# Entry
Amino acid sequence: MGTLQGRALTALLRVEGLTVRYGAGTGAAVSGLDLTVAAGELFVLLGASGSGKTTLLRAVAGFVRPDAGRIVLDGADLSDVPPYRRPVNTMFQSYALFPHMTVAQNVAFGLRGMDRAARAARVASMLDLVSMAGFAARRPSQLSGGQQQRVALARSLAPNPRLLLLDEPLSALDRGLREQTREEIVALQRRVGTAFIVVTHDQQEALAMASRIGVMRDGRLAQVGTPAEVYERPASRFVAEFLGAANVLPARLLEASGQGTVTEVLGVPLRAAVPAPAEGVAVLAIRPERVRLLPAGAALEPNRLAGTLEGSTYEGDRLIHAVRLADGTAMRVSAPLSDGLQGARLPPGTGVVLELPPEACMVLAE
Amino acid sequence: MSGRGALLGWLLAGYAFLYAPIAFLVAFSFNDAKLVTAWAGFSWRWYGVLFADEALLRAAFLSLRIAVASATLATVVGTLCGVALARFGRFRGRGAFDAAVAAPLVLPEVITGLSLLLLFVAMDQAFGWPAGRGALTVTLAHASVSVAYVAVVVRARLAGMTPVLEEAAADLYAPPAEVFRRVTLPLLAPALASGWLLAFTLSLDDVVVASFTSGPGASTLPMVVFSMLRLGTTPELYALATLIVLAVAAILLLGLWLQRSNAAASGGQPIAGGAGRL
# Structure
């Protein structure tokens, strides 16, 4: 699933060398970006604000003109196609429901070349799909945020677009509703089979929803891959730190082969089960939940580092230990509390040994 | 609660300052005497005189016709100007266009009137249209002044409206003309109503521009009233003024009611301004 080979035939959207600038003299919001999205995929564009993800989405929708590059959908170049002729629909972050129309009129807006009966039937089935059947005659102002979100989704899916673009679809919802809606969007996408591109800044959301994630930084894609790939095999320190917490240690390359890498961290040899990056090693990274906390007496073998426990934070389902290594480097260790809290808590100041399993170590370019 | 009592007193004084003259005028329109100085009992007499005064009634209907026509023309042109200024981004000559649209807001009326008179005379001589001065030239003159006010109201409304709704319409396959008709225009409706009412009142109470651009036999109501005043005030004028106050109050209430129901329907904020001049 990691590569697009074998998928090339079903490629739906191809973005080639896309560059977008807002006004002359300013930096590019998107620069020289290449991306392929397959039919039926739920692709998530993940990035901080200002990374260019929304600009990329707006360029695909046709609201911003690229300064260079091409956007190809189903083999047809969209460069000179205005938004109203692109078989692409957008679900806007603010939902952008028409306030002067009812829910049914909103959903019917994009339906063209249908007779009255067919249109009414389509509206009814779309509202049914998002469990809003009883709200057809309401105005958007009479709906809650979550209900507006569903109507916006129904409206953008009603014309049966080739590709649906969702700009931060969950950001306006409160937390409890967000997780539930996230699952509903994924289920809906599976059901209708339309390719979705979802823009978000929330890594949890991206990991949970995506079939593939594109991590954006400074108008470029820092990495594209499945959620597991970008989380467990990040291509750079930036990706590793953007997708969840990571302990990053300075490392010196000792030995590298196709099978694995041996680095030296604080005088201790550390084996990692990944090949070294081409540019030469700068750091070794490991997720807090992959580090094992051993008692002070444990033997100091390779892949083990000694340190002192500075404190633990109780988070209900886990303990977060703050450990300081001999050279002063701070490490975070996440320990699941599947057996409850008893005995898991250690007094601050206790000497500990941290084990960094080779298959959990990531060797990254700075 | 003497503080409260004092506040109430000030409030009443404020209302009196604003409305006592009008109340006085209404009261004396029912006075059974020719003089303002003495109350001689209640009478409908002056309303009878008013409705028998054909010249005055003709002027009133002419004024209404001119006001409706010029307000409608100004609303159409002013809306286009407002949309261009708020939505078309930067285009060649935008600065000059902006200044040209706003100019009538700051130009003294005397100068506007004089320049329009010169223009109409020159046009008449050059290609015979508009032939002479009359209702048509006053209508055109009023429309040209009111365009600025409508454009300001429409532009302000558009500036407060994010373009995302128009983008959403385009995204749902509506070509630009349809986006304007089905989304922009309905959302602009309160601003259009305010702009139209503003233009209507501007036209109805204008003396200066009308005096410059009107011709024989086409005297508007304010022009006739003005010339009557030279012979001293008569209770007939009070009766006329009372009727106008009533009509304006009715239009204001209608406008408020429309705005409120519109705001309730769209969940948006009612638009201030516009009708304020009434």
User: Anything to note?
Assistant: The radius of gyration of chain A is 24 Å. The helical segments of chain A are 53-61, 103-108, 116-129, 145-157, 175-192, 203-209, 227-232, 237-242. Chain A has two domains: 3-238, 246-365. Chain A touches chain B at residues 61-63, 82-85, 88-90, 92, 94, 96-100, 109-110, 112, 139-142, 155-156, 159 (CB under 8 Å).
